[in-house]
Amino acid sequence: MEDFNRAYGQVFVPGRLTVGLMTPMAGQSGALADLALAQEHARLADALGFAALWTRDVPLMIPQGSANETAALDDPFLWLAALAAVTQRIVLATGAIVLPLRHPLHVAKAALTLDRISRGRLLLGLGSGDRPEEFSRFGADLEARDVVFREHWSALHTALAPAPVVDPEQYRVLPPPQARIPMLAVGSARQSLQWIAEHADAWASYHREEDRQKGRIALWHMAQDQRSPGMRKPFIQSVQLDLLDDPAAPAEAIELGLRTGRHALAAYLERMRELGVAHILFNLQRGVRPVEDVLREIGTDILPRI
Question: Mean per-residue pLDDT for 226-250?
């Protein structure tokens, strides 16, 4: 296996399912997150044994989704640096940097810096973006984002390489890191599964009904087998979670996730582990309970058992 930073081994543990959290965990449409509160949540998640804190890259405040919500999210690298400052072990992950809208050398500089100041705790998730308004405002070609994604990926991979650069005209953005930062494909990124299986260190996708997700994971494994039979790069899944007060409440579907009690959630996580999911990240913003209560319940009653 490649010499990855410490984040890779902490989030991707063979035979186990680890659990992460999307940040900020509390907030409302169009409002900036309370950093002090987010740092409190990060410290608590770190202490309870959650594996990772994730954040999104949303360049512009554009209404989106069935609720027509507007996200006001801080720069992902600066945001995760603020969470790194108040935590010790928990991994910091981007889900995902909109790669076609950023210069790969700027991404490399930010990623290498964050990985260094967090002592190897970064997972770099990368996506292609899909909002026409953003591409128009940035002067980028929406229809060419698949090609640009691959070009930027290649340049970024070279810039993040631990080995010295051979070409004297390819100046480094920082000295070579001690270990490689994992590069994850988030969503399809407008690429084939075969391309993702070859180039990405893991693949992150969204919540689906269980039989559909089983089929998706089978396709992921098939794409890897076409290159390296038996090789299994990690599969990551996001889940919108509304954890109810009643631990015995049955699970019911909500958009891209579940409304459920603790017992059904634990059973669901076990089924996901058996399907081959390596890491699940929960988005708690759909829930009505205090975030601290949800974190403590999952951290105390579920994490030790999975």
Answer: 94
- What Cα–Cα distance (Å) separates residue 181 from each residue in 26, 32, 149? 28, 29, 18
Phi, psi of 118 (to 5 degrees): -95, 5
CA 92 → CA 55, 60, 76, 117, 219, distances in Å? 8, 22, 10, 11, 28
| Fold classification of 6-305 (topology level) | TIM Barrel (3.20.20)
pLDDT tens, 256-298?
999 999 999 999 999 999 999 999 999 999 899 999 999 999 9
**Phi, then psi, of 46 in degrees rounded to 5:** -60, -45
Domain chopping of the chain, boundaries:
6-305
Which amino acid is residue 226, in one-letter code? Answer: Q
Instruction: Give SS3 for 233.
Output: coil
Higher pLDDT, 303 or 286: 303
Model-level pTM?
Answer: 0.96
How far is residue 32 CA from its own chain's centroid?
21
